[in-house]
Write a structure and sequence with these properties.
The protein is α/β, with parallel strands linked by helices. The chain contains nine helices and nine strands. The radius of gyration is 21 Å and the shape is elongated.
């Protein structure tokens, strides 16, 4: 893995050198940049942030999707060149930059709230109310449950490994789940989804990790 990471770094620098020297002839060779990003960021803000850099040419993105709590592992193992991660811990050979917080709200359909949550205190109702979870690495719902109750809750779970499918499942009343505020604005505005516990939310800090190289391509991607 160490050799692979070194080879990819060397390939990137060689690509930039040849492009600066104009040895590709009339056809520009794109630099392939592998990046791991969490699904919510990919559907919410990441492509907008990358739009100008990629549209100007010279970069070919190879995007991988991984939970923000685990994405730094791929960078550490040399499988990607950059990562959006919830960890602020620096990785050897990489630089890290704070991006901001991603706010998650506990949302469900109004009908779901009436059927499962309205008749009992929140902590009692959430013990048996079906919950939506993105996949086995998604700990947001468990973290929210710990805010609402002093004892462990084990409600029935629907695993929905799709951002838009996750939101649609909540709209159809299958369960409640933690959803990015940036992706839920329209549903909240129309009343299709409502907060199950007003004033309670989770803010997940996000960090940008990338190789510490003197590379114009990586600098452009990071800026």
């Amino acid at each position: 893995k160490t050799l692979l990471r070194f080879s990819e770094q060397l390939d990137l620098l060689e690509n930039e050198l040849f492009r600066d020297l104009g040895v590709f002839g009339g056809e520009e060779k794109y630099a392939r940049i592998s990046v791991v990003v969490n699904a919510d960021s990919l559907d919410g803000w990441f492509l907008q942030a990358m739009e100008k850099t990629c549209r100007d040419g010279g970069i070919s993105l190879d995007l991988r999707v991984e939970d923000q709590e685990h994405s730094a592992t791929l960078l550490r193992e040399g499988e990607v060149m950059a990562a959006v991660s919830a960890s602020a811990a620096p990785i050897q050979g990489c630089r890290v930059e704070y991006l901001g917080d991603m706010r998650y709200l506990a949302l469900a359909s109004p009908d779901y709230v009436v059927r499962h949550l309205a008749a009992k205190p929140v902590d009692e109702a959430l013990a048996s109310a079906p919950v939506l979870v993105f996949n086995g690495k998604d700990a947001l719902q468990a973290r929210f449950l710990s805010l609402c109750s002093d004892y462990p809750l084990e409600p029935p779970v629907h695993f929905i490994p799709s951002v838009h499918g996750f939101i649609e499942a909540a709209r159809r009343g299958l369960g409640w789940g933690m959803m990015p505020a940036i992706l839920s604005r329209e549903a909240l505005k129309t009343g299709a989804l409502v907060e199950i516990a007003q004033g309670r939310h989770l803010d997940v800090p996000l960090y940008w990790h990338c190789w510490r190289l003197e590379s114009p391509v990586l600098d452009a991607l990071s800026n």
